[in-house]
Each structure stands twice: as C-alpha cells, then as structure tokens.
Write a structure and sequence with these properties.
single chain, globular, 13 helices, 4-stranded mixed beta sheet, 7-stranded mixed beta sheet, 16 strands, alpha/beta
Length: 398
C-alpha cells in the first residue's frame, strides 16, 4: 500500500482519486476541480501542456536516462547553457539532482567543503531563519526550523552548528558579529518562507545579508525551490540580490518530473577546481541531469519567456489584491499576498478543519496546513477561475 506524506495513516481521510488532469483542472470520477496549489507549487503551466508533453515524448524516443558519471548528453548540456545565460551574475555552474531537498543538501555541502578546501576547518556553522523550511532530508531539517515537520530531531538535541534568527536586520547583524568567523554560509528562502507559514519579509533584510556575507567572507545561499520562476512576483529573487549559490526545483520542469539544480558562482566553483582530487565535490545523485527532466525544463523556461509569464503573475497578484481587499473576519489573523501567493492565516487551526472538503464541493482543490489557508495557482489560470478560488476561500468564513 502507499504510505502517504504528512499523514497519520490510521486516521487520514481517503485522498481524492485523480483520473485525469488538464489545464488548471484535476479530475476525479465525480467532478473536476481547480488545482489551487499547483501540485505543491510546481505545475506553473498547468497539466497536459502540449509543448511539454511533446518534449517528453521526443526525448523518450532517444533515451530516457543515462548517468552523468563518465557520460554526458545534449539535454543536460543545453539546460546548463540555458541556465548560465538565464540566471543573473556569474551563477554559471549547474550541479543537477533529483529533488529540491537534495539540491539544498548539495548547496550546504558545497558551502562547507568550500572552506574545508581552504583549510578553514572552524567554519562549521550555518546561519538560517526562524520558521525556515528547506526539505525533509536530515541536513535540510537541521537548517530548517519547523517543529511540526522536524520534531524528530529533538532526539539529537539542539544543533551546535545551526543558528536561527528572525528576519530582522538587528538580529542579523548581531549574529554576524558573534559567529562570523565560524560561519560557512547563510541560507534563506528569499522574501517568502513557504512551508513555514507563507511568511513574507522585506528585501532590505536580504540586501543587508549580502553586505555582511561580503564583509565577513560567508557564502550566501538562496533556496528558490519554491520562490523561483516568478512566485514572489520577481522572476527570481536572485535578480534583486545576488547569492553565491542558488537552488532551483519544483517549477524548473513545469512540475512534470522531479529535478533540481544547485547553481554556484565562479568563486565557489574555483574553490573546488584544481589538480588535487581531494578537493573535488564528491556527490552524485543517480538521476542528476535526467534527460527527460532536462528536455522538459528547457521547454518550460522557453514557454515562461515567450509567453511573458511575469505579466501573467502580476495580473494574478493584481486580481488577488483587488478581491481580498477589505476581507476580514474575527478568526483571521492576517491576509498576506505576494506575487502568485495568497495566504489567510487564522488564529486557531481548528477553524480550517473541513475546508478541504468544502473547497472540493465548490470545485477547488486546496490543501490547508496548520493555521494557513493559501493558494499558489498555475500561472495559466483565467480570471474567472482565479476568482472562483479566492471566493471559495472567503466563503468558508461566512
């Protein structure tokens, strides 16, 4: 049987059975519903997109996968070249993997080994954010800060190598003053903290972080697995503040297949480059650079560019702000909107009990968690469809 994610299997409600999906719609035997969460924020072009379908089919006729150990292939080469020209600054060196969590692990490993390669063995600490979520593998849980997801780490006690701070500049400055010579990196979900509660913060914090990282020789990592490809209303937050290492996943393939990339700048890359084999990055996910994933990722980026997706995202934000303006309820703590994300935070999570079924009956798939009702819709959504999602959210409180 399937062991489902984030569920107590004994008490879980049976999941909705999906028999087809097209555009923004998921189809069950009984009805169709708008996917308001884009299959965990990844299906930005909607389902069954003809161009993406064709990219997968064409590559299958050649081969589906070969490893990158001692071999290479055109889809991986072309995606690396595309990312080099597409991403800001000198984020030019792509290390592929098969999921966002693994890509963050790679970024953290890069940061630690970058200093180990220089003999700076004391730089073992990571600066992270309160309410951070970077994945469910062990190091990503350690740099995360969410007791609902990562409580298992209590078995080990408090980590000596991770410092968590709020998104406040004074706290940031204090942390650098105290730990700067022990830090190998600072890692953040830039502007929008996803699974930690759709928390949004100001760009000034990231600008100051960049300054302090430069001043003290600390690497800055942006985990844009969730925020990349327009979700914050920016193409990438890295376009505004340039990190040393950028992590992308989810929407990288348009949600078609698991794939991710850890992109390093020249300084980081050069820290591994040389005659000494011991300084190489000893990491190699089996399915890194998967040919199907690279082929569909290339087409996904092409669609994003050609069809002016940033304009679509700005329209989604404009409609959302208009529709949610003035919405209040005694049970609602705050409504937050940024780019292609809207979150209604309630004081008591019990308020949201039953909302998923209510949304389903209104033709919307939603998956609220903890105290958060939210939507991160596919970018191809029509205004009428978006209004249905937003009005369903508001109707729950009537």
């Amino acid at each position: 049987m399937i062991w489902y994610p984030y569920e107590q299997m004994k008490t879980m409600k049976p999941p909705f059975q999906i028999i087809d999906a097209e555009g923004v719609f998921l189809k069950t035997p009984e009805r169709e519903m708008i996917d308001s969460v884009s299959s965990w924020w990844s299906v930005i072009h909607g389902y069954k997109h003809p161009v993406l379908n064709e990219a997968i089919k064409a590559q299958v006729d050649n081969f589906s996968h070969v490893m990158l150990g001692g071999l290479t292939h055109e889809p991986a080469q072309k995606l690396s070249e595309k990312l080099q020209s597409y991403l800001p600054g000198d984020l030019d060196y792509s290390f592929f993997s098969d999921s966002g969590s693994v890509a963050v692990e790679v970024a953290l490993k890069m940061a630690l080994q970058y200093y180990v390669n220089q003999g700076q063995m004391q730089r073992t600490k990571v600066l992270s954010l309160i309410h951070a979520y970077h994945g469910d593998t062990f190091k990503t849980m350690e740099v995360g800060d969410d007791e609902d997801y990562h409580f298992i780490l209590e078995a080990y006690g408090e980590s000596e190598n991770v410092i968590h701070i709020p998104t406040k500049v004074p706290e940031l400055e204090k942390a650098f003053e105290k730990y700067h010579n022990q830090l190998n990196c600072m890692i953040v979900e830039p502007l929008l903290q996803g699974a930690g509660g759709m928390r949004m913060y100001d760009i000034a914090f990231l600008k100051r972080a960049r300054q302090l990282c430069d001043e003290y020789g600390v690497l800055l990592i942006f985990d844009e697995v969730a925020t990349g490809f327009g979700r914050t209303g920016n193409r990438f937050v890295a376009d505004l503040v340039l990190p040393d290492i950028l992590v992308l996943g989810k929407a990288l393939t348009g949600g078609y297949i698991g794939h991710a990339v850890t992109v390093a700048n020249k300084k980081v890359y050069d820290g591994f480059y040389g005659e000494d084999a011991d300084k190489a990055l000893m990491h190699g996910p089996t399915f890194m650079g998967n040919a199907l994933a690279c082929s569909v990722a290339l087409k996904s980026i092409e669609i994003f560019e050609k069809e002016n997706y940033m304009e679509k995202i700005h329209k989604i934000e404009e409609i959302t702000r208009r529709e949610m303006a003035g919405f209040t309820d005694p049970r609602v703590k705050e409504v937050r909107i940024m780019g292609g994300c809207v979150c209604v935070e309630v004081f008591d999570r019990a308020v949201l009990r039953g909302y998923q079924q209510f949304a389903y009956e209104h033709g919307v798939f939603s998956r609220p968690f903890l105290n958060y009702m939210y939507a991160m819709v596919p970018y191809i959504i029509s205004e009428e469809e978006l209004l249905k999602v937003l009005r369903t959210m508001k109707e729950w409180f009537h």
